[in-house]
Amino acid sequence: MPITDSFRRPDLLRLTYDDYRALPAIANSDLSRLRDALNGRYQKPTSMSGALGLGTAFHTALLEPELYEPGLPGINDTLIWWMVDGVKLDPDLLKLLENGTPEPSCIFTEPTTNTVCKLRADLITAETDKGYTIVDFKTTAARDYNHFLSQCSGYDYDRQAAFYSDALHADRFLLVGVQKVEPFSIFTVEVPPYMLTEGRAKYQRLLKMIQPAAELPSYLSEAVKDVMSSLGQTTEE
Description:
- The chain is built from nine helices and seven strands, in the order H-H-H-H-H-E-E-E-E-E-H-H-E-E-H-H.
- With 237 residues, the protein is of the alpha+beta class.
- Strand 2 (105-110) and strand 3 (115-120) form a beta hairpin.
- The chain is globular, with a radius of gyration of 18 Å.
- The protein has a single domain, classed as Lambda Exonuclease, Chain A, CATH 3.90.320.
């Protein structure tokens, strides 16, 4: 599809993770904090210090292997590389990895709420036989493909898919589940339209909560305040 003035993808930026986090915009992770507040399990954001998680280690090894540090506490390096090799044994995923841009960031304005937002994708491959493609890798303990598919909605991966796809006018969004337990299978889900519709409703609902005129219950006020403080804004009139 041609890009016109009214249909333009935001520029992809090559930023460090710290620089991305410092961008004054709403991220999908901020929306997750609002969701948690709605569900009564809100926690203030914590620092990124401490033990490296398996998911982070896997993403680094797969997408930015030159940055991978072996021997870190709590990380099974052999397991990490088994998982990476499992992804690369899939010829379609290998082709996407070889031709794509890993860890690109962008900043954009969400049109329905006029909210400044940001995203950092795992992988974007612009030129494929199926069009502009976003790929997101998830470590999972799902038993099989159908179990992982059910998790896509339960864990709000549909919201992420819609948030990213709408921002970048993507032709498709692939969620790739990588088993972190034997048999280390790979489950690739091309997010269907109905799931994008559900995810879009989720992110737009959450974005509406941080608008100045939004009327919120008191139990959400702290979460909204924390999210808005990341933009250097307050919720007070």
